[in-house]
Write a structure and sequence with these properties.
Elements (H helix, E strand, L loop, with lengths): L1 E3 L8 E3 L10 E2 H7 L4 E5 L7 E2 L1 E4 L10 E4 L7 H14 L3 E5 L9 H8 L3 E4 L5 H16 L9 H15 L1 E7 L4 E5 L6 H9 L4 H7 L9 E5 L3 E10 L2 E10 L7 H17 L6 H16 L4 H7 L8 E8 L10 H12 L4 E5 L2 E7 L5 H17 L3 E5 L6 H19 L6 E3 H19 L9 H4 L4 H15 L4 H8 L3 H15 L6 H16 L4
Parallel strand pairs: 6-7, 7-8, 8-9, 18-19
Antiparallel strand pairs: 1-2, 3-5, 4-9, 10-11, 10-14, 12-13, 13-14, 15-17, 15-18, 16-17
């Protein structure tokens, strides 16, 4: 069964598997408290101290299992659909029903319905995907099997998990990130040379990395054979469909036959550590930030940064800029660290840096709409820790350091253009280039105000309402593509009245609106005046 997030533009899917709890059940309050702000209790029914065994999507054709978290992923469920799901959940003894925050229908008394069925109702934050909820549930349940705090995103929690796994499997356990850098390890009585080299170097040796290449894209646990050292069991750590790390087992003489299943549980428990990044990775983010800052400032190279990002063979990159919306302008001082965590969780090869009031994220270009989807997800995620709405602009695919630096300035100005729009958005630079050009010219006019002098002076300095009225007439005419009928409709005046105004403007300003040069100059001055704050 798959979970599909119901946020606009979201395309990621994640498997959410029902999991029985073998050693001490996880309780629903542990899930609610595992991530601050992720879930809130809408209707507690008789109480939320329910055992939790897994998560499943609500489907009328498939009744939920006992102690399951039932996810109602329909974007706008009706009252009847929620009531039916609650009734089925109550009959099955499910742990709770989860809906997207703000999606409960107004015609349903959810408190009464929850009390009637005995099933609590939770609401998930709109910035949290269904796949993350599924990963968190499975991590809690799998971690409970080892007595480990599977949802604790700290280095100590990861070492605790490794210790429990090594004890259960009677072997050496190494947990790595996606680039096979060692994050935690635990060993029993003896350690072979390859495991020792991996731990001391803090990264898997080349011989092991070469063998892991064949297993990197596998979804399940796999055996690999490293020459001279014997077999290794490898389990990918997944958050949704993204491999964020690996669990490596060097088996001992007493390792049980159930090792593949147990190692799968270890990888599921470790996934929670990657949902909410650990503070131990901040040093890496700082290095990436300085490399990106140097690249944008003209002192560094794209090759040096991509080597650090472990993607030296990637030829095409995208740069995105983020800034505060007019509703809450500016970027908070700590946004670089917070944004780096958001971006790297969505793409491990992303780098983030802040220059002035604009944040930049460099990431590998994706085919189709992949880059735009990544940019939108970063913008939405970053708005939560930033505590304010953000706007974002994304470049075309870039291949050289010169390309990146050339786009940087345009992206900075594009943020200012987007910030003036009514709602926060993510846009592509190609769409905004004309607006960016006008904004650049407006800045030039601020430094040289004489550029705005000329035919419009008689209207700009007219203290009567007529001057502003005629300037509004010109702006509407230009916005309508010089179509008087459309412009008159936009101003809600008769077409003849509008045409009379144009004639009066021509006479007062001593211009000819049929002259292409006069018309172009006049439109440019009108639009620059608007960007400077109006008439």
């Amino acid at each position: 069964m798959t979970v599909v997030d119901n946020r606009p533009g979201e395309s990621t899917v994640a498997e959410v598997l029902p999991l029985p709890v073998a050693g001490g059940p996880v309780r629903l309050p542990q899930l609610v408290g595992a991530r601050r702000g992720w879930l809130m209790v809408v209707a507690p029914a008789a109480g939320i101290d329910q055992p939790l065994a897994g998560a499943t999507i609500w489907d009328p054709a498939w009744p939920p299992g006992r102690h399951q978290l039932v996810l109602v992923t329909t974007p706008r469920p009706t009252g009847a659909e929620i009531a039916e799901a609650l009734a089925a959940a109550g009959h099955a003894g499910a742990a709770a029903l989860v809906v997207r925050n703000g999606c409960l229908p107004p015609d349903l008394d959810v408190t009464a319905a929850a009390a009637r069925t005995g099933v609590p109702v939770l609401a998930v934050n709109e910035q949290v995907s269904w796949e993350e909820i599924g990963t968190l549930v499975r991590s809690l349940v799998s971690g409970a099997r080892f007595g480990a705090r599977g949802a604790t995103p700290t280095a100590s929690g990861l070492y605790e998990l490794a210790e429990s796994a090594a004890l259960a499997l009677s072997g050496a356990i190494v947990l790595t990130d996606a680039d096979l850098r060692v994050l935690a390890f635990a060993c029993r009585d003896t350690v072979d040379d390859l495991t020792s080299e991996t731990i001391l170097a803090r990264r898997a040796p080349l011989s092991l990395r070469a063998q892991l290449g064949s297993a990197r894209n596998r979804r399940n646990v796999a055996w690999i054979d490293v020459a001279g050292t014997g077999p290794r069991l490898v389990a990918p750590i997944r958050v949704g469909n993204v491999v964020v790390g690996y669990v490596l087992l060097a088996p001992g003489p007493d390792t049980p036959d159930s090792a593949p299943r147990v190692l799968g549980d270890v990888s599921a428990a470790a996934a929670a550590w990657f949902i909410d990044e650990q503070t131990g990775r901040d040093d890496e983010d700082a290095v990436r930030a300085e490399l990106l800052r140097g690249l944008l400032a003209g002192e560094g190279s794209l090759a040096a940064l991509t080597e650090r990002l472990r993607r030296p063979t990637t030829k095409r990159w995208c740069l995105m800029s983020l800034g505060g919306h007019a509703k809450a302008p500016g970027v908070i001082p700590d946004i670089e660290r917070l944004l780096a965590r958001c971006a790297r969780m969505l793409n491990p090869s992303a780098a983030t840096a802040v220059l002035g009031s604009v944040a930049y994220v460099l990431f590998p270009s994706a085919p189709g709409s992949g880059s735009a989807e990544f940019a939108e997800r970063v913008r939405q995620r970053a708005a939560v820790p930033a505590g304010s709405p953000l706007v974002a602009c994304i470049s075309r695919p870039l291949e050289t350091s010169q390309d990146v630096r050339a786009e940087c300035g345009l992206l900075r100005r594009a943020v200012d253009v987007l910030a003036a729009r009514p709602e926060p958005v993510t846009a592509e630079l190609a769409e905004l280039r004309p607006h960016v050009l006008i904004a650049e010219l407006a800045g030039l006019a601020t430094e040289h105000p004489e550029l705005l002098n000329g035919a419009l002076d008689v209207l700009r300095y007219d203290e009567s309402p007529r001057g502003a009225e005629y300037l509004d007439t010109l702006l509407s005419w230009f916005d309508a593509g010089c179509d008087a009928t459309r412009a008159a409709a936009a101003l809600r005046v008769h077409r003849n009245t509008f045409r009379y105004r144009l004639q009066r403007i021509e006479k007062l300003c001593a211009i000819d609106l049929d002259d292409a040069v006069h018309r172009f100059t006049l439109e440019l001055q009108v639009r620059l005046l608007v960007l400077r704050g109006g008439w």
